[in-house]
Design brief:
This protein is mostly helical. Helices cover about 70% and strands about 0% of the residues. The chain contains 14 helices and no strands. The chain starts with a helix and ends in a 6-residue tail after the last helix. The relative contact order is 0.14.
C-alpha cells in the first residue's frame, strides 16, 4: 500500500483548482479586512489629513491623540468621560452573564444527554423552540416582569436577560457534546457510586474543555456586541460599551471627528477580536467536538 502511494505522481504546486481556491480566499480576506484597515488608518490620522487625503492614504505620523480622546474625554451629550465608562459597564455585565449562562447550559446539556430524565425530550424541544423565536418578542413581557419585581434598569436585569437568551444555544452545544461521550464512562462512574453532581463536576466538565471554550467565545461575542438589550434593560448607570459608542458618534457638535469615531469603534471591537485571535484554534476544535452524533 505504501509503495502504491509512493508511486503516485506528485500534484503540481499551482494547479487551476488550487489557484481558484487561493483567489477566492484572498478576495474574501480582502473583503472582510478592508473595513477594519480603513478604521485603523483613519483613527491614526489628524483631521487635517482626513480632510485633504484619500480614505486609503496612510497617516503621516503615528498619532494616538484620537485614541486617547475616544477612551477618556469624548463627549456623550453633556458628559465627556469617553468610552471607558461603557467599557467597564460591559465588563460588569459580561463576566457574571457568561459564567452563569455557560454553567447552566452545561448542566442542562449534561442532564438531557446522560440522565434521560422523564420529559427530557419535551424540555429539549421547548428550549430549541425558544432558539428560533426572535428575542424581540420577549422584550415587553420581560420589561413587565422586571418592573413588577422593581429590578428593571439594573445590573441584575441585564445579566438575567443575557442568561435567559443564552440558555437554549448553550444547552444545544453541551447536549450535542455530552451525547457523544462514550456511555461506558458514565456507567463506570455510576457503578463506583458517583452521583449526579460528582460526575458532572469531576468527570464531564473537565472533559468538555474545547466545548467550554466555544461556549465562552459564543457568549462573550454575543453579550459584548449587544446593543438593544443593554439599551432597554441595563439602566442609565450600566449602559454597555455599544450604547456608549452610539452616544459618542451621534452626540458630536460642530466638526465631526471621524478619527475619534473610528478609534472608539475599534476600541469597542477589541475584546471580541482579541478573543478570536487568541482562541481561534480551540474554537475550530470545539465546534468539531460532538459533531458526529447528535
Amino acid at each position: 500500500m505504501n509503495n502504491q502511494r509512493s508511486r503516485r505522481p506528485a500534484k503540481p504546486w499551482l494547479s487551476p483548482a488550487r489557484l481558484g481556491v487561493y483567489s477566492f480566499l484572498f478576495v474574501s480576506a480582502l473583503f472582510f479586512a478592508l473595513p477594519l484597515a480603513v478604521m485603523l488608518i483613519t483613527s491614526l490620522k489628524t483631521m487635517e489629513e482626513i480632510r485633504t487625503g484619500s480614505i486609503f492614504s496612510l497617516p503621516e505620523t503615528l498619532n494616538l491623540a484620537a485614541w486617547a480622546k475616544a477612551w477618556s474625554s469624548a463627549c456623550t451629550g453633556i458628559t465627556c468621560d469617553g468610552i471607558q465608562v461603557g467599557f467597564w459597564n460591559s465588563v460588569r455585565i459580561l463576566i457574571p452573564a457568561t459564567i452563569l449562562s455557560v454553567l447552566l447550559g452545561a448542566l442542562n446539556g449534561y442532564a438531557l444527554a446522560l440522565w434521560k430524565v422523564r420529559w427530557s425530550g419535551l424540555a429539549f424541544l421547548l428550549l430549541m423552540t425558544g432558539t428560533f423565536i426572535p428575542y424581540q418578542v420577549y422584550v415587553f413581557p420581560l420589561v413587565q416582569l422586571f418592573a413588577a419585581t422593581k429590578t428593571f434598569g439594573s445590573l441584575f436585569a441585564i445579566v438575567t436577560v443575557h442568561v435567559i437568551f443564552g440558555m437554549p444555544v448553550m444547552t444545544l452545544i453541551f447536549r450535542n457534546y455530552f451525547i457523544s461521550v462514550p456511555e461506558e464512562i458514565f456507567k463506570a462512574a455510576r457503578i463506583d457510586g458517583a452521583g449526579f453532581w460528582w460526575i458532572f463536576g469531576i468527570i464531564m466538565l473537565p472533559m468538555a474543555t474545547p466545548v467550554l471554550i466555544v461556549a465562552v467565545i459564543w457568549q462573550v461575542t454575543g453579550i459584548w456586541n449587544d446593543f438593544l438589550l443593554g439599551l432597554i434593560f441595563a439602566g442609565r448607570d450600566n449602559l454597555p460599551m455599544t450604547v456608549q459608542l452610539n452616544n459618542i458618534v451621534n452626540s458630536q457638535f460642530g466638526e465631526r471627528e471621524y478619527n475619534v469615531d473610528m478609534a472608539a469603534t475599534v476600541l469597542t471591537a477589541l475584546v471580541p477580536l482579541a478573543l478570536y485571535f487568541i482562541s481561534g484554534r480551540w474554537f475550530v476544535r470545539g465546534i468539531a467536538a460532538g459533531s458526529v452524533k447528535g
